[in-house]
Amino acid sequence: MKNSAIQFSVALCLCFLLSCGTTRIYYLKNKTVNSALMSNRQPFRANVLNEPAIQMGNWRLDALSVSPDGRYLALGSSQIKSPLNDSKSKLEIYDVNLKQMKYTFYTNDLKQKFRINNDTDYGSIFYMLHPYKLGFRDGKTLVIQVQPYADAESIPMDALLEIDVVSGAALSAKLVDRGDFTVINSLPSKTNNTFEIRDGKMFVDGNQLTDMPTGLSSPHDEVKIGN
After folding, report:
1. Are strands 72-79 and 60-66 parallel, antiparallel or unpaired?
2. What is the C-alpha to C-alpha distance for residues 191 and 22, in angstroms, rounded to an integer?
3. Peptide bond preceding 156: is omega within 30 degrees of 0, i.e. cis?
4. Is the sign of the CA dihedral 224, 49, 215, 211 positive or negative?
5. What 3 state SS string does the chain have?
6. How far apart are CA 227 and CA 224, in angstroms?
7. Organism's domain of life (predicted)?
């Protein structure tokens, strides 16, 4: 009876949040990607969701992005080692509805996708393609900005790759200046709010989001799912 009452209270809370508009937030804490629902009306309150979370294990999460419809979650991560050419990186695409990983692309997988363009046909000189900026152009088109690591002394340019997250196919690839995030930053905004992490706490439009855990790490993203 007690569990039923708790479930009913949670349902009421979710209904209240949805009725006034919500933003689904994905955030990193203790090497785990979690999610919460945030009311879009001030004061900003969060309801942490009780659902399976994504464990990063011994991978460092460097970038995180969710599709505008909330269906897909993209994760860019790395293992930086010494010597540097032993390092690894990967891009993962998680299906939120099915609660399962849809694709995992390591450096060799990304090299194959970059062959769609002769300028980005990376050879053996590049030992790691690090996806360190992510964004969705629409509900199924993921844009990743990759930083190539090479054994040569020269500093290679960054590269942008568009992937259809439904089929996993590469759509386009091109080079950009290293550290130029113009394309990623110009992708459609997914919310009307500004989110940031300060001292392990999440702030919305400069105000601390209540009912969220502390000790959060920087990578996070959000998608507006209510009115």
Report:
1. antiparallel
2. 10
3. no
4. positive
5. CHHHHHHHHHHHHHHHHHHCCEEEEEEEECCEEEEEEEECCCCCEEEECCCCCEECCCCEEEEEEECCCCCEEEEEEEECCCCHHHCEEEEEEEECCCCEEEEEEEHHHHHHHHCCCHHHCCCCCEEEEEEEEEEECCCCEEEEEEEEEECCCCCCCEEEEEEECCCCCEEEEEEECCCCCHHHHCCCCCCCCCEEEECCEEEECCEECECCCCCCEEEEEEEECCC
6. 8
7. Bacteria
Quote the CA–CA distance of 139 and 184 in Å, as a whole number.
Answer: 15
Per-residue pLDDT of the chain (227 residues; tens, 9 = 90+): 544 444 434 444 444 444 458 999 999 999 999 999 999 888 899 999 988 799 999 999 999 999 999 999 999 999 998 888 889 999 999 999 999 999 999 999 999 999 999 999 988 888 999 999 999 999 999 999 999 998 776 778 999 999 999 999 999 999 999 999 999 999 987 778 899 999 999 999 999 999 999 999 999 999 998 76
List 208's β-bridge partners, or say none. 203
φ, ψ (nearest 5 deg) of residue 138: -155, -165
Whether pTM exceeds 0.90: no
